[in-house]
Amino acid sequence: MAGHKVDDLGRNLFGCTHEVTFIFTILIVSAMVLGGLPPAFLLYLMVANHDYVSVLFTRPLGILMLVGAAVILSVGIFWMSRIVKVEV
């Protein structure tokens, strides 16, 4: 009886590899969207309201904020890439 359960477990694990691949694909796309949203939003603001964003590029504190945001975003993207990288 115990061998039968192990058989079923093996079939279930190997039979759902497409579902697992699909879930990891969703995770990768989510990570790409989360990593791309801040730069995309900055570009949108530069087009829609240039005066509002120009302060970030003209004042020293604004440049420091952009550098800090880039560092934090890079760490987040690296972290998400390590979370998503799973071998099936």
Describe the 3D structure:
The chain has 88 residues and is an all-alpha fold. The protein has a domain of 58 residues. It contains four helices and no strands. The model has no long low-confidence stretch (mean pLDDT 80).
Précis, in short:
The chain has 88 residues and is mainly α.
Task: Sum up the structure in keywords.
mainly alpha; 4 helices; 0% strand
What is this structure's SSE topology?
Layout: H1 2-15, H2 17-48, H3 50-58, H4 60-84
The assigned structural class equals mainly alpha
Main β-sheet description = none
**Binned strand content:** under 5%
Uncertain residue segments: none
* Order of H and E elements: HHHH
What is the averaged pLDDT score? Answer: 80
**Number of helical elements:** 4
Got a strand count? 0
In one word, what is the shape?
elongated
> What radius of gyration results from the CA coordinates?
22 Å
- Give the termini separation: 29 Å
Portion in helices: over 70%
